[in-house]
Design a protein that fits this description.
two-stranded antiparallel sheet; 221 residues; mainly beta; 2 helices
Length: 221
């Protein structure tokens, strides 16, 4: 979910969400985006998702133990549980509230009290925090691509509003992930993330902070 310290609240949203040679033309969009990191800017080539969730390949389904590492070595390695489930249509999606709560607990400890899904929108979660605060996270842009050879790329742009004493704090966070299926019980990923100012500052924005890391998923019973 920056150069010195990953924006911890930014990582509550979303689990983290990949590359191959000879990709079809549509897949080149995220590869081109990746080539420009960390000098990303908005607007990004990410369509609005509406009420559609991010659909993962079938090999994501199940329970996993995730290990996330900061490539700069500044932040400690963290571990947490994640799971991917079938939606009512049989498509594989992340259990967003469970995953965000698991990541948030690993990062924030008791500061995170709970994470709730918006029943009307799978792309919106509310995280209740200590100190009479809560974080509202909404995916406002998304693109995913399915290259061959057990790979998957996904890029999500999230609008995050931290409510609490004083004025709300608004930011935008973009996370691009490249997943590779090693075998039935292991998935490895690289992730790139940047944060932007509030959209109130204008529709055009330059990246303010950036972070990159690795993610390993090991299947659990």
């Amino acid at each position: 979910m920056p150069l010195v310290r990953r924006p911890l609240l930014a990582l509550l949203l979303s689990l983290v969400v990949l590359l191959s040679g000879g990709l079809p033309a549509a897949a080149s969009t995220l590869e081109q985006r990746l080539e420009g990191w960390p000098a990303w800017s908005l607007p990004a080539p990410l369509p609005r998702p509406g009420a559609r969730d991010l659909v993962y390949p079938a090999w994501f389904e199940g329970n996993w133990r995730a290990t996330s590492a900061d490539l700069s070595g500044v932040e400690p390695e963290i571990e947490y549980a994640v799971r991917f489930i079938q939606d009512p249509s049989g498509r594989i999606v992340g259990d967003r509230a469970f995953n965000a709560n698991s990541i948030g607990r690993a990062l924030l400890g008791e500061q995170l009290q709970r994470v709730r899904n918006d029943p009307q929108n799978p792309n919106r979660q509310l995280a209740d925090l200590s100190g009479d605060r809560y974080l509202e996270s909404t995916v406002v842009g998304r693109r995913s691509e399915h290259p061959p050879m057990d790979q998957f790329l996904a890029d999500e742009l999230s609008l995050q509003v931290l409510h609490g004493p004083g004025d709300p704090r608004v930011s935008q966070v973009e996370t691009l992930s490249r997943y590779v299926r090693i075998d039935a019980d292991r998935i490895e990923a690289q992730q790139w993330q940047v944060s932007y100012d509030s959209p109130a500052a204008g529709l055009i924005a330059e990246a303010k902070r950036h972070w990159s890391g690795t993610l390993v998923l090991k299947r659990q019973p």
